[in-house]
Write a structure and sequence with these properties.
homodimer; 138 residues; alpha+beta; HIT family, subunit A; 5-stranded antiparallel β-sheet; 3 helices; catalytic activity (chains A, B); HIT-like_sf (chains A, B); HIT_Hint (chains A, B); HIT-like (chains A, B); Histidine triad (HIT) protein (chains A, B)
């Protein structure tokens, strides 16, 4: 089986946080929303139902864990979860913390204006908080 | 524990197909896209991570099954899965069959123009095909 390789467009739009049991964890470089992307480290998978049943179960566990931590550390009102892949076919799951009054509320974040990249310090602080909470939960 | 009751806005926008082990299955009354909605029949749940681990596992299984059937019977190019809930907090999962050239492609379907209700015959035919495929798969 060929190796997992992160799609170049996902790589260009994000900052790598690290790996969970199944997924590469990425922070979308858009400071308007706390927005993570989870990419199962499997070769040539575009749909959730193409994963093995075990991988599907692990993915669900990891999505729930990441969602809960994101809600916890940001205090956001709602988590949005999405697996779209119309532009980037490599299976990837968006986990986004949403708040009333954010720039896309109550619509979806996809296609809502232009992203605003993080400044280095804010980005580092966010990744440290998230990673530390994930480590404590695991 | 109080009983599950379908949110009135979900009810108004959809046609009921039936119940899976965990979910109420609904067809979005928008003939522009093959668009299903799955609502876990649990009381007062707004986020996937609030479900019990067993319900999360069953939900994943059912999402994968419904996605695969939808892709199969429609021949669509891509499945979009989304759990947003910014407007309707009751946890519900969108499963949408997407095609290059559909009216929202490659963007998300949410917020893309006005829905076009089904005519009775097309709607009945779709529900029969889907239900029959689901029964065979279960």
């Amino acid at each position: 089986m060929a190796d997992f390789k992160l799609d170049s467009r996902l790589s260009a739009d994000t900052i790598a946080i690290g790996d969970s049991g199944l997924c590469r964890l990425l922070l979308m470089d858009d400071s308007r929303f706390p927005w993570l992307i989870m990419v199962p480290r499997r070769f040539d998978i575009t749909e959730v139902h193409e994963l093995t049943p075990l991988d599907q179960t692990v993915l669900t566990f990891e999505i729930a864990q990441v969602s809960e931590i994101l809600k916890d550390i940001t205090g956001c009102k709602k988590i949005n979860i999405g697996a779209l892949g119309n532009m980037v076919p490599q299976l990837h799951i968006h986990i986004i913390g949403r708040n009333e009054g954010d720039i896309a509320w109550p619509g979806p974040v996809w296609g809502a204006g232009k992203s605003v990249p993080y400044d280095e310090k804010t980005m580092r602080t966010f990744i440290e908080r998230f990673s530390s909470a994930l480590q404590q939960a695991s």
